[in-house]
Amino acid sequence: MNPIKIGVAGLGRLGLIHADNIYHTKHVELTAVSNLDKQVNKEVQEKYSIPYSYTSYEAMIENDELDAVCIVTPSGFHTDHIQKALDRGLHVFCEKPIGLNTEDIKKVIQTIEESDLVFHLGFMRRYDEDYVFAKQMIDRGEIGDISIIRSYGIDPIAGLDSFVEFAKQSPSGGIYLDMSVHDIDVIRWFTEAEVKKVWATGNNKAAPELNALNEVEIGTATLQLDNDVTAFLVAGRTASHGYHVETEVIGTKGMIRIAATPDKNKVTVFNEHGTVRPTSQNFPERFKEAYINEIKEFIDCIRDERQPSVTALDGLRGTEVAAACQHSFEKDELVEITY
Fold first, then answer.
1. Locate the Gfo/Idh/MocA-like oxidoreductase N-terminal domain: which residues (predicted)?
2. Residue 170, CA distances (Å) to 55, 74, 109, 167, 175 in order
3. Rounded to the nearest 5°, which phi and psi values hold at 94?
4. Cβ-contact 160, 238 below 8 angstroms
């Protein structure tokens, strides 16, 4: 079996995770990387014996050996990088969000739909065993009709200072687009419905300097879907215990809670602090297997000449809802969404 040759664009924390997963996937070759930092390129190239490295994305995709790219560049570049890869005849895996501007996303969706190339969007929770198990229960009708969903995504407070420094240099797009797109996607996936109204609020109790940067350390949103499901979101950067991702689904026949406590493993510690359950400290730890599974699915789709279940339209809807939440927060008003 000839290996599928992939280039990874962007070598930040998540880019390095994808590079490692690609390297360890059977019948796949990590052929090239592109990143602005030459030193990082050199270190990664040597670690994985990568044939090519570039400081330019455009230069990397000109490499005729490549079959596909994994895009983990800053969000504002995603639609442009997707378009250029497709124009070069490359299959595309792109991290969330698909983009920041809805008109740009719609244009690139048209190219994706007109192409026979595989496009895969990095909503990794769809490949997490716990979320897949819950989705299967919902689809079998085991909790009846969904009425309410509550979803938390809160980063550890240990990273708050570094985020403040990052926000001073470059806007994140807002906490809803930066973080809540995963929760929004899960809500759409579980309910198979669209969001029609949002109301969002937020504050900066731990980092008031974010007020001047139009950022929030913790934001909330209430969503009403077109099937009358109500969803509540919390996105934050102040979890003192670690990395907290939790989803609760309430139905007419039962209720599901996914990671009600963000357990690191099945160990319980008994010491001077009482009974303690160690918790996940970051997203690479919590969703390690999900990141592996989604890359495997991307490769399988290329081999089988099919498209994954997660689509570019899912990416567009996530961006639209997140942008509506940000608008609601900034204007302090209820926002209705039209598609």
1. 4-123
2. 20, 10, 27, 5, 13
3. -130, 135
4. yes
Domain span at residue 184 reads: 126-289+318-336
- Residue at 231 is within a domain: yes
Q: Residues 138, 198: one domain?
A: yes
* Tens digits of pLDDT across the chain (339 residues): 799 999 999 999 999 999 999 999 999 999 999 999 999 999 999 999 999 999 999 999 999 999 999 999 999 999 999 999 999 999 999 999 999 999 999 999 999 999 999 999 999 999 999 999 999 999 999 999 999 999 999 999 999 999 999 888 877 778 999 899 999 999 999 999 999 999 999 999 999 999 998 899 999 999 999 999 999 999 999 999 999 999 999 999 999 999 998 999 889 999 999 999 999 999 999 999 999 999 999 999 999 999 999 999 999 999 999 999 999 999 999 999 998
Strand 68-71 and strand 4-9: pairing?
parallel
Structural contact between residues 235 and 180, judged by C-beta atoms closer than 8 angstroms: yes
What is the model's pTM? 0.94
- Give backbone dihedrals phi and psi of 47, rounded to 5 degrees, phi first: -60, -40
Asked whether residue 136 falls in the same domain as residue 273, the answer is yes
Find out whether 320 and 339 touch, Cβ atoms under 8 Å.
yes
Cβ–Cβ under 8 Å, residues 335 and 198: yes
